[in-house]
Amino acid sequence: MLVTAGIAVAGTLWYVLWLARPGLAGPAALAFVVLPLGTAVAAHGVLVMIRHVRLHPVALRFWRLIFVALLLFGAGFAMMAVEAFRTAPALPTFPVDAAALAGAGFLTAMWAVARVPIGTGRGERGRQWLDRAIAFLGCGTVLFQFGLAPMINAPVGWSVQTITLIGLSLALALGGITKVAYIGDGPVDRVALRLIGTSGLVAAGVVLLAITGGPDSAVPAQGVVMPLAPIMAALAVRRQWSATGTRARRANTWLPYLALAGVDAPLLAALHGTLTWSDRLVVINVMVVTGLVAVRQFVTIRENGCLLRDKRASERQLRHQVTHDGLTGLANRGLFRDELAAALAAGDTTVLLVDLDDFKIVNDSLGHDVGDQLLIAVAGALRSAVGSAGLPVRLGGDEFAVMLTGDADAGAVADAVLSAFNGPMSAHDLLVRASIGIASAPAGTPLDHLLRDADVAMYAAKQRGKANWVRYHHGMEQPALAHARLGGELRRALEAGEFRVVYQPIIGLDDPARRVIGVEALVRWEHPVRGTVSPADFIPAAEATGLIVPLGRFVLREACRQTAAWLATYGPDALQKVGPNVSMRQLADPDFVADVRAVLAETGLPAERLVLEVTESAALRGPQVSRTLRELHDMGVRLALDDFGTGESSLSLLRAFPASIIKLDKSFVDGIELDELGTPAADARQAVARAVVQLAGALGLDTVAEGIENEEQARRLVALGYSLGQGYHLARPMSAERLGELFAARLAAA
Ligand code: C2E
Ligand code: CA
Ligand code: CA
Questions:
Q1: Residue 404 phi, psi (nearest 5)
Q2: 8 Å CB contact between 441 and 449
Q3: Which residue's CA is the closest to the ligand 1 atom numbered 22?
C-alpha cells in the first residue's frame, strides 16, 4: 500500500516539476510509467494476500479475477508507455492492442464484482435491482451529459479507443458502485469491494481533465489521477487481509437518492437553455416532485430502521430469556448444552456438577419462597466463586453446573464453590452444603459421556458423605450403575408384590418365660431369581432412588394390619408393640404424618402400639423432620432411637428427640460377656451399655439391647439393668404365620 502511494506521490511531484521546469523533468513519456508501476505493485499485493490468507472460495475467486484484471490493465498501460517513449516528444495515441488489453482488464474487474453474490431473498434482490437501476441511470445521465458527450462532440479528435476505454471504466465504476453499495458482510470484505468498485471512478477524473485540458491532459491523467486506482486496489487488499468477522450492517440506502438528485443537474443546465416559461415550470415541478418523493421515501426508511432496531432489541431479550434461568439469571440447561458442545468440539473441557445436599428439606419445611431465595443466594455464591474461570449454570431444581475450558484448575474451582457455601446463606441464614462431581474430556468426546461421568462422580461425592468433591476416574461408574439398575428392579418388584414383612420378637429378659413383648418389622425381598434378598443389600439403593418412600409405606401398612389382626385373634396381651423401621427419606416426606394417621385409622391399630424405629442420623435432619417427629409423638405414636450409640451426638439428641425407647446397638452387645478378661475394649463397651441404661432410666425411657446371640450376653445385660432384648439367641426374624403359631401356643398354654 505504501509503495503504491509512494509511486503516486512521485508521479504528482514529477508532474509539478514538469509544469514548473520542463527542462529538468525529462520527457513527458515518463508520466506513462507511473500507472503500470503502481498497477504491478497492487497486483503483487493481491498475490501475496491470496497466498497468506485463507480465503472463502467466493473471496478467492474474486481476488484471483482482480489479480488477472490488474495484470491485463497494467500490461495495456505498459504497452502505452512503450509507445509514449517511441513517439516522444509527441504524445502517443492509444495503440489498439494496448487498449484491448486494458479494456479486458476493466471487463475482468467488472466481472469479478458482478460475481460477488448479493442479497438473500428473492424480494430483496428485486428491490436491489430496482435501486441499482435508478442509481445507474441517474449517475450515468450525469456522467454522459458532462463527460462523454463533450468528449465525443469535441472539435479536437479523441481516439475511439480512449473514449471506449473511458466509457467502459465509467460503466464499471457505476455498475460496481451501485452493486457494492448493497453488499452486506460476506466472504469478500465490504469495504475492499467498495474500494475496487470505486477505483473505476478515476476515469471520471480523467474525463474531467480531458474536458478542461484537451489531449494534453493525458500527462496529468497518467501521472497524477490514474495512479490513484492502484492505491485503492492496495487499500482493498489491506482491508481483506485484516478482515475479521465484523458484524453485519445494513446495506446502503442513500445511493438512489443521490442519483435522483444528480439527474437534476442536467435538468438545471437545461433550464438555462431556450425553454419557454411554461416548459421551465414543468421542469421545476418535476424536480420538486421527485425531490419530495425522495424525502418521503427517506422518512419511511428511517422509520423502518427504528422498527428494525426495536425488533432486534426484543429478539435479544427473548434470546436471553430462552437461554437463562428465570429465577437465578444463570445460564440454563439448553445454553449449557450448546456451549458444552461447542467447547467439546474445540478442545479439553471440564464439567462440575453441583448438587445441593438435602435442599428438598428446606423447600418442604420452610416453603418454596425460602427455597427460591436460597437458590438465588446459591447462584450468587456460585457466580462469584467461579468468576471468569468458567460458565456457571442452573440445570434445574437444586442442580447446578460449571463448565470450564482449557487448563482451568477444576479442583480449585470446586474448593472455591464449597467454601463459598461455607456460611449462612440468604436472609434466613440457612446452611447449605453441596456435593460436586468433576469430569474432564478431550476434544471430540460426546457431550452425554462427559455429563454421565460427572454425574457418576457427583454420586460418589454424595456417597462419600456430602459437602465434598470427587473427580471421575475410569471404572468409577460400576457401583453406581449397579445402584441405578437395582433402583429400576426395586420399582418393578414393588409393583409385582415381591416384598414381604418378617417380624423379630423383642423379648422380656428378666421374665423366666421370655415372653414376646413386641416385634420389630423387617422387610424382605423375595426375588424370583436370587431368592430372599437382605434389606442391607437394597435399602441403600431404595433410599438413593426415593423408592424407600412407597416401600416404607407398604411395610408400615402391612405391620400395622398384621399386628391389629394378631391382637384381634390372640387378645390384647399377645404383644404390646410393633416397630417398623422408618428411613430418613420417609421422615422428610411431607405426607408422612398423614400416611401414618391414615394407616392407623384404616387398620384400627391404637397409636400407642406403634413404635417407629428411627436412626440417630435421620432424627438429626432439619426442621421438617423435627416437626414430623413431634406431630407423631403428639399423636401417641412411640419413637425408638435405633442403633443407639453409633452416631456422634447420641446423648445430646436425647434432649431434643421425643423418644420413648432406646435401642442399644449390637456393637455394644458383641463381646460384652468376655469382660472377665478385663480388656480395655470390653470394659469400654460395658461402660457404654451401663451408661445408656442409666441415662434412659433417668429420662424415663425404655431400653432394648439388640443383637443378643448367646445366653451369657442376655445374663450380663440383665445384670446391667436391661429388661428388653432382641437377637438371634432369643428369636430370629420370622414370618407372620410362624409368629401366629407362637401366640396361639402361648394362648393355649395360658
Ligand atoms: P436394624 O433396624 O438394626 O435391624 C436389626 C437387624 O439386625 C436385622 O437385620 C436383624 O435381622 C438383625 N439381627 C437381629 N438379631 C441379630 C443377632 O442376634 N445377630 C445378628 N448378627 N443380627 C441380628 P435385617 O433384617 O437384615 O435388617 C438390616 C437393616 O435393614 C435393619 O437394621 C434396618 O436398618 C434396615 N431395614 C430392615 N427393614 C427395613 C424397613 O422396612 N425399612 C427400612 N427403612 N429399613 C429397614
Ligand atoms: Ca431397627
Ligand atoms: Ca438396630
A1: -120, 140
A2: yes
A3: 707
* 707 CA from centroid of ligand 2 (Å): 11
Ligand 1: residue whose CA is nearest its atom 38: 522
For the chain, the helix, strand and coil percentages under 3-state DSSP, each to the nearest 5: 65, 10, 25
Task: Mark out the alpha helices in 214-276 (DSSP H runs).
Answer: 218-220, 228-241, 255-271
Rounded distance from Cα 180 to ligand 2 centre (Å): 84
Report the pLDDT value the prediction gives residue 438, as an integer from 0 to 100.
95
Distance 254 CA to ligand 2 centre (A): 86
Are 10 and 55 in a shared domain? yes
Q: Which residue has the higher pLDDT, 136 or 710?
A: 710
Which residues in 589-647 belong to E strands, given as ranges? 611-615, 638-644
Average pLDDT for the chain? 86
Chain segment 79-123, per-residue pLDDT in tens: 999 999 998 788 888 788 888 888 888 889 888 888 887 766 677
pLDDT over 80 (residue 180): no
Same domain, 104 and 215: yes
Find, among 368, 346, 450, the residue nearest to 401 by Cα: 450
- Number of compact structural domains in the chain: 4
Does 644 map to a domain?
yes
**Ligand lying nearest the CA atom of residue 669:** 1
How far is Cα 323 from Cα 329, in angstroms, rounded to an integer? 9
d(C-alpha 336, C-alpha 341), whole Å: 8
Ligand 1 binding site (Cβ under 6 Å of any ligand atom): 504, 522-523, 534-536, 539, 548, 552, 555, 580-581, 583, 613, 642-643, 707-709, 726-728, 733
- Report the nearest-CA residue for atom 17 of ligand 1: 707
- d(C-alpha 131, C-alpha 403), whole Å: 49
Which of 522, 615, 639, 717 is the pocket-test mutation for ligand 1 (most atoms within 8 Å of CB)? Answer: 522
**What is the CA(9)–ligand 2 centre distance, in A?**
100
The pTM score is 0.46
Give the pLDDT score at 535: 92
The atom number, within ligand 1, closest to the CA of 643 reads 3
Binned at pLDDT 50, 70 and 90, residue 284 comes out as confident
Higher pLDDT, 357 or 580: 580
Ligand 2 ion: residues within 5 Å (CB): 581, 613, 642
Range 437-454 average pLDDT: 89
Residue 283 belongs to what domain range?
273-317
One domain, residues 453 and 587: no
* 413 pLDDT higher than 80: yes
| Ligand 1 atom nearest 728 alpha carbon | 18
Any domain includes 258 = no
Does the pLDDT at position 200 exceed 90?
no
Residue with cell string 464484482: 113
Judgement on whether residues 443 and 510 belong to the same structural domain of the protein: no
Q: State the pLDDT at residue 119.
A: 62
Residue 733 to residue 501: CA distance in whole angstroms: 10
The ligand 1 atom at the shortest distance from the C-alpha of residue 539 is 45
Name the nearest CA neighbour of 538 among 529, 548, 528: 548
Is 370 a residue whose pLDDT tops 60? yes
Residue 300 and residue 343 in one domain: no
Whether 97 and 119 share a structural domain: yes
pLDDT of 659-705, one tens digit each?
A: 999 999 999 999 888 756 566 666 778 888 999 999 999 999 999 99
The arithmetic mean of pLDDT across residues 374-403, rounded, is: 90
pLDDT tens figures, 316-333: 999 888 999 999 999 998
Last residue of a domain, which of 242, 262, 295? 242
Structural domain contains residue 326: no
Residues 87 and 169 reside in one and the same domain:
yes
Cell of 653: 439428641
Atom index in ligand 1 nearest the CA of residue 583 equals 44
From the CA of 579, the nearest ligand is 2
Beta bridge partners of 500: 524
What's the whole-number mean pLDDT along residues 431-442? 90
- For 318, the grid coordinates are 427473548
